Amino acid sequence: MSYSAQTDRFVHDRLPPPEQWPRLTYTLPELQLPGQVNLVQVLFESAAKRGLGDLPLLRSPRRTLSYAQAQAEVARIAQVLVQDYGLVPGNRVLLRGGNSIGMALAWLAVVQAGAVAVATMPLLRAKELGDIIDKAQPTLAICDERLLDELQLARAQQPVLQTLVSFDALHQSGELALAAARCDGQRPPCATAADDIALLAFTSGTTGKPKAAVHTHRDVLAACETWPRHVLRATPDDIVMGSPPLAFTFGLGGLLIFPMWAGASVYFPDIPYTPQAMAQLIFDTGATIVYTAPTFYRQMAPFMQEQATQRGQAAALRLSVSAGEGLPDATRQLWKNATGLEMLDGIGATEMFHIFISAAPEDVRRGAIGTVVPGYTARVVGEDGQELPRGSVGRIAVMGPTGCKYMGDARQASYVKDGWNYPGDAFVQDAEGYFFYQARTDDMIITSGYNVGAPEVEDALLSHPGVAECGVIGQSDEARGMIVKAFCVLRPGVVGDAALVQALQDHVKATIAPYKYPREITFLDRLPRTETGKLQRFRLKTP
After folding, report:
1. pTM for the full model?
2. Residue 469's domain is classified under what CATH number?
């Protein structure tokens, strides 16, 4: 029997009632984890046992840390948090910073010390930070010194946040690093129970007010044994890079936890990624795995071709992972033509921690996201929760070793029903078990009795040479109930006039069933997106 080390029970006491919990299943031998486990300790000790201590873990243009060096730095920072700042297991620690070695070390140290990491997106303003502080009640914040201003404004309105310590993301200096340098790092990792809380992950806000998803040490380690083991299959030779923030579970898994589990290394740049900069860095660093969103891949494709031509050779890249939003087939084919690589697509959820449906490049079926990841079960169901015949459009229900547990949120009852997780996506599953994404369930457009998935229309529009980006919604209509409406960002030099509207409508009619064409098209300079690149359709519906 294991006992919780988290004496601060704030999050534990705000978990949903047991009858609203997801049913967690551990069907694979590797998912049988001990009752007492600290996920950061496991990741570092696993690397040491495999003889990987001297291999690089964290890379940047200014420094590289091996697994052994990173483990020592994390131990010193964790010691500072406990000894100097009075951190108690179970305390929430707000983390604010972009993707950097400093941010990664701070996150690992917080969790190793038995506290709950609450990572936040760098672009959040004081009001948004204040909402997170109000919900999570952190007493300590660790912040990149370049991002202090907004957090200090939020802190002025939230006195619960008593202590603010800064770090320098670009150099081995700053308040936190200087304090850590005075420690010997001999304090052992907190002996957390597997079911102690490791992090609060705030959802990205594509559907409105963010929710706080709770994940335990067991959840994160179990996630390592599913998609990373059976689909990604990274090795210690891999160099990983990408744009998803560490504050987003897609980025946390892909750009820190999963590389550590595999013994790989991660590259963090000193500058924000642009499509052109990322393409150049893929070649410069020898990156073999990259993570980003579909829109970024689409923008990056011509620069990958340009780099290959200039250098006279292809990149070392072997895996390109897309998730975070639906991957249009037009984008998949554009990337394949530019790089020769088949995209590794996947769908996951902040509430599930990471990807639960995916396909390795050799198993890709055109138009499909993939099959259910080993360790999970998924099915397409109707409104009554019963599985529908293959080929039917319905809601996806998922069960596995991770699941949704919102902290203090009535929306838990909508996400988990009878132990199944309902991420809010509409799918079709074919006879071979492949899942085809249709739309968010609240983005299905019912027009004159026909069901139309917004992503399908977006894919058709993106195949037109004049369209750079697009978003599709359903708009109320007295005659048809709803009509399909599109918002398009055009490529440079393309004029958005009545003639182009007609041309795009004709293009869609010739590409997919004619009844799916957008009856209205609006041209925009840009689309509303979250910091992670996900389209915010609700903002298109309510400008």
Report:
1. 0.85
2. 3.30.300.30
